[in-house]
């Protein structure tokens, strides 16, 4: 692995990751691979890199340090990030090869930045609740299947038909064909906290 | 998100809301997918490491072969008994030993009755009976096997199937004793019939609980529709593999009395299964794969029944050993047998320095050496599955030279490699061809090998099985190779789908519900068992990170240490939350973590934990060895044999066990007064009973 690292500073306003104008007084020094007990920032970065590599390798079907670009979104999200599709595409554009694959070293480089910057933070529970409520015109606590499908497949970053169907299978109450979003949201939140709590 | 006012802002509002929901939901799906993949990884790595165990077992036998010089005839008997199983029988002997005519079917029997020649009604009766969990009487099983063997003997090594566009050919992959999957295929696709051909691509048995039922059904259809039903041999249609993976055990539970006969018959039926099927001269169907030396002409001509087990004939590692002999004797003894033929597999002749006489006396040494060599050769030749129908114990090449001088004289070794490659190889994405070290047999073959092979024989396409795929099927090598696997939920319910392939139609999928958490549970249980089995090694590894002896290590070091011991190539940091419950400030108290693991696993309190650990780690090896020793499959071995086996085993595995340890072990089992151990009881006592969550 080359160590052609750019020096990145912590920054809360999410830019495009243009690094060139931020090289003033670096607060992180990125060192090559650290062995032994990890402590301090060097150890932290090494640990982050290991986690990123692990997640990447799960999707590396042929064990040759490349993954299909279409799975990048999945990998990023499983590392604890909540990017939207546009953000995933933006990231992908930086590292995708002409043949549609992504190499580990490029991914590692970009993703380490993302994690150190704490980009793509989780969506808080109450925000999601409000989002559902916004789709619930009559404020009755549920959304009909038709409305749900209309909003999610025609607006926003549209769901594909497959995505929509997958969601409906679990989310809809089969008897009333409606989504009781409070319960649904709680259910998914509980599922999530059972596994992979990722702490930087 | 703002307040509701004009329609425009409302639309803007719902737009934003949609984005958020989609973002949030996609994250959830990604996590599920990651869990699914990790679980898959766990199962795969454990399975392959199990297969590696099988190979270690073979190394164990090779080790015995090479190193162990029996000091008494009793010992020699004992050792040779371990190797001589699965001999092929002459026709008459087979009929005599595995006869069925003398077996009476009692009036109380309510299962199906078979009469020969078989008719479609028999098949339907069998299907219905098995659906109702009935069993077929041993007499009919044996009869069926005899008829099947007679039929298979006439078939060539490579079956040829031709289709016209109106006729369907359905190809099914591994079934592994999962009868429900076979039923589902028949239900969705229809039963075999003159207008519906089927090819079953091996691995009908082992692991699943209904191996016998599957074989009965497949053989029945084979006999009823001989032109439409084709069976390929898989690597599990092999005695040595059956010993390990459950088929043998399953048979003895079905019928204590007749189980032995049935098993014997199966050995002699499996070896007659064709090795490959060719559709329209264009599509080749084989169980495992190919290698860069695969030669269809050779495959067509060899005597396939000679290979009762492909696993027993192992190549000796000779490179490190020959020079020593030459140095001592000045001439090479290797590679020639008593008859002076070159055909025997090359032997390694390593004098055991502890047992060899003083090397200072070269004459004595060479005499001893010649004697040892002769003994080794004799043992080796007995291993070669030479059919006893041969009047003398000839090596293969001499048989050929007697029959037909124009025939190419392949060595036994070359033929064996052809068969091994066909049954055990796996495709790989990289170019080239290399040894399949993971399975220990066959090759990894790349897209270039496929290309060349298809070109050479003007083929379009390869269909193979042998590897479990999450979706039940997978294309590779530019869609020139299709893997098809029909046993769904192979590792656990929800782990994978099964699939079957229909020629001239798009690949058809069986769908099974995937319940991720249930599969996960099962995977992690298996993983925790593995961790427990390596307790001592893990403690050592953890201590190396705990220089100050605080009893704690960082989670990062935990991950590194675990991988260094288990070597499964798993994403331990991703898996950690399921394996490690409580941590303090990112540090783990490793001793108590290991104690927790032990509590989960320990089933019998009075057995020392280290012994338990040893047993767990080597359990399947132990089982296999014990089954081999119990030659007549009676379920009994003598106390002495048990002790001897244990000693041999533990010395090879570098296990320190005192005699007291062994005695303790025995004392916890009931063995009857005549000094025999019912080792099934013994194994049951230590077997981890896996309970599926309800």
Automatic annotation (TrEMBL), chain B:
<dbReference type="InterPro" id="IPR004843">
    <property type="entry name" value="Calcineurin-like_PHP"/>
</dbReference>
<keyword id="KW-0479">Metal-binding</keyword>
<dbReference type="Pfam" id="PF13499">
    <property type="entry name" value="EF-hand_7"/>
</dbReference>
<keyword id="KW-0106">Calcium</keyword>
<dbReference type="GO" id="GO:0005509">
    <property type="term" value="F:calcium ion binding"/>
</dbReference>
<comment type="similarity">
    <text>Belongs to the PPP phosphatase family.</text>
</comment>
<protein>
    <recommendedName>
        <fullName>Serine/threonine-protein phosphatase with EF-hands</fullName>
        <ecNumber>3.1.3.16</ecNumber>
    </recommendedName>
</protein>
<dbReference type="GO" id="GO:0030145">
    <property type="term" value="F:manganese ion binding"/>
</dbReference>
<dbReference type="InterPro" id="IPR011992">
    <property type="entry name" value="EF-hand-dom_pair"/>
</dbReference>
<keyword id="KW-0677">Repeat</keyword>
<feature type="region of interest" description="Disordered">
    <location>
        <begin position="321"/>
        <end position="356"/>
    </location>
</feature>
<dbReference type="GO" id="GO:0051879">
    <property type="term" value="F:Hsp90 protein binding"/>
</dbReference>
<dbReference type="Pfam" id="PF08321">
    <property type="entry name" value="PPP5"/>
</dbReference>
<dbReference type="GO" id="GO:0004722">
    <property type="term" value="F:protein serine/threonine phosphatase activity"/>
</dbReference>
<dbReference type="InterPro" id="IPR012008">
    <property type="entry name" value="Ser/Thr-Pase_EF-hand_contain"/>
</dbReference>
<dbReference type="GO" id="GO:0050906">
    <property type="term" value="P:detection of stimulus involved in sensory perception"/>
</dbReference>
<dbReference type="GO" id="GO:0030544">
    <property type="term" value="F:Hsp70 protein binding"/>
</dbReference>
<dbReference type="InterPro" id="IPR018247">
    <property type="entry name" value="EF_Hand_1_Ca_BS"/>
</dbReference>
<dbReference type="InterPro" id="IPR013235">
    <property type="entry name" value="PPP_dom"/>
</dbReference>
<dbReference type="InterPro" id="IPR051134">
    <property type="entry name" value="PPP_phosphatase"/>
</dbReference>
<dbReference type="GO" id="GO:0070301">
    <property type="term" value="P:cellular response to hydrogen peroxide"/>
</dbReference>
<feature type="domain" description="EF-hand">
    <location>
        <begin position="657"/>
        <end position="692"/>
    </location>
</feature>
<keyword id="KW-0464">Manganese</keyword>
<dbReference type="InterPro" id="IPR006186">
    <property type="entry name" value="Ser/Thr-sp_prot-phosphatase"/>
</dbReference>
<dbReference type="GO" id="GO:0005506">
    <property type="term" value="F:iron ion binding"/>
</dbReference>
<dbReference type="Pfam" id="PF00149">
    <property type="entry name" value="Metallophos"/>
</dbReference>
<dbReference type="GO" id="GO:0030291">
    <property type="term" value="F:protein serine/threonine kinase inhibitor activity"/>
</dbReference>
<dbReference type="InterPro" id="IPR029052">
    <property type="entry name" value="Metallo-depent_PP-like"/>
</dbReference>
<keyword id="KW-0378">Hydrolase</keyword>
<dbReference type="GO" id="GO:0031435">
    <property type="term" value="F:mitogen-activated protein kinase kinase kinase binding"/>
</dbReference>
<feature type="domain" description="EF-hand">
    <location>
        <begin position="533"/>
        <end position="568"/>
    </location>
</feature>
<dbReference type="GO" id="GO:2001234">
    <property type="term" value="P:negative regulation of apoptotic signaling pathway"/>
</dbReference>
<dbReference type="InterPro" id="IPR002048">
    <property type="entry name" value="EF_hand_dom"/>
</dbReference>
<feature type="domain" description="EF-hand">
    <location>
        <begin position="617"/>
        <end position="652"/>
    </location>
</feature>
<dbReference type="GO" id="GO:0043409">
    <property type="term" value="P:negative regulation of MAPK cascade"/>
</dbReference>
